[in-house]
Design a protein that fits this description.
Blueprint: E1 4-6, H1 20-32, H2 40-47, H3 66-72, H4 87-95, E2 100-106, E3 111-120, E4 127-132, E5 136-141, H5 142-147, E6 153-160, E7 168-170, H6 176-190, E8 206-214, H7 217-221, E9 228-237, E10 242-247, E11 256-260, H8 263-277, E12 286-294, E13 299-306, E14 314-317, E15 330-331, H9 332-345
Parallel strand pairs: 7-12, 8-12
Antiparallel strand pairs: 1-3, 2-3, 2-6, 3-4, 4-5, 8-9, 9-10, 10-11, 12-13, 13-14, 14-15
């Protein structure tokens, strides 16, 4: 049925030459939450840690990725789509009150981000409501937007958006037998490690379980990445200390392989866990939380495995790895592409005595 739908959306004008991504992200955040505190310079500061972009914007005036900017404001609804979408999908998103981010690729090179905030298909040719941080608001014929926006641009990528958080994340249930084994080992460790307390029924605190997977470097370089199951991890925090126990499985007969008791590592690990937990809402989209490792690239990442379609899987690195940033959510394709770049840039040594 032909109709006209226009969302009440206001796009900020980008305050720096290359901040179309920041203008879109900040504006979209405010659309979903009128009390949002995100500004363009705050988004940029999160993208470029160590730079005070709100004090001196010049060093931060760089092109960036809209999906990563939207992740910072918690408004990205993965996956990133590497093409335009059709009118039916545009209508479905807008009718559900959701803005659509788009990338325009210029014929002379480079790109620009704008947002779709409405449609009109009453006449013979459907039109879109476009919010542009440079050119402002416009009413553009869909066919022109696809191939000749501002004469020299074409629609290349699509970014679905959402209110803060849009996934129900499942944590694995920890077998009680593993907790008993952890408590026994912890008692032994307490005698040799200062400050370590015994795990008891009275101070268990937070206990979270995740299956651990690892990648063989050869499968990554051959673009046949197939993570292999490597064990089971139990994170505990009783308020005074954080510990990670790693077992060879989640069965009563499973054996303990190692205990990570480094406070700095476990604090960083918990920070990533908390970011994941804060995104949970009651929706139909379900993920299972896993851990993915690739030691050769110093990769430790949380893996959100989609129950229905693994192509929608998402990955959150615990630490910076190559161009992968800690606590940033990456769709599957982009994650593995950046891992392959990191492998290509990794220095190879023949000396068996070197390490790094």
């Amino acid at each position: 049925m032909a109709s006209n739908k226009e969302l009440k959306f206001s796009m900020q004008r980008q305050v720096q030459d290359n901040w179309c991504w920041a203008a879109n992200a900040a504006s979209i955040s405010i659309f979903y939450d009128n009390h949002s505190g995100w500004t363009q310079c705050l988004v940029a500061t999160d993208v470029f840690p160590g730079k005070s972009c709100c004090v001196n914007a010049a060093p931060c005036n760089e092109p960036w990725y809209l999906d990563e900017a939207l992740q910072i404001t918690s408004n990205f609804n993965a996956p990133l789509i590497y093409s335009p979408i059709n009118l039916a999908e545009i209508k479905a998103q807008v009718d559900n009150g959701r803005l659509i981010g788009t990338r325009i690729g210029w014929s002379g090179g480079g790109g620009h981000f704008v947002s779709i905030y409405g449609y009109n298909d009453i006449g013979q040719d459907p039109f879109l409501y476009i919010a542009d941080p440079i050119y402002g608001n416009s009413f553009v014929k869909l066919s022109s937007f696809n191939t000749s926006y501002q004469n020299n641009g074409r629609w290349t990528h699509t970014y679905y958006t959402q209110q803060n958080g849009d996934a129900m994340i499942k944590f694995s249930k920890v077998n009680k037998a593993l907790l008993e084994k952890a408590a026994t080992v912890k008692l032994k460790m307490a005698s040799s490690i200062k400050g370590l307390e015994a795990l008891s029924n009275n101070n268990e605190g937070e206990i979270l379980g995740q299956e651990v997977y690892f990648l063989n470097l050869s499968t990554l370089t051959n673009e046949l990445e197939t993570p292999l199951k490597g064990g089971y991890r139990v994170f505990t925090d009783n308020g005074s200390e954080k510990l990670i126990y790693e077992f060879d499985g989640n069965e009563p007969s499973s054996t303990l392989q190692q205990v990570i008791h480094d406070n700095n590592f476990n604090k960083v690990y918990q920070k990533s866990l908390n970011k994941i937990k804060s995104k949970q809402t009651n929706t139909d989209e379900n993920y299972v939380l896993r851990v993915l490792r690739l030691p050769e690239l110093k990769l430790e990442a949380f893996w959100l495995h989609n129950d229905q379609n693994s192509e929608f899987d998402q990955y959150i690195p615990v630490f910076n790895t190559g161009k992968l940033k800690a606590n940033m959510v990456y769709p599957k394709l982009k994650f593995f592409n950046l891992l392959r770049v990191a492998e290509q840039q990794r220095k190879k040594y023949d000396d068996p005595l070197l390490g790094g």
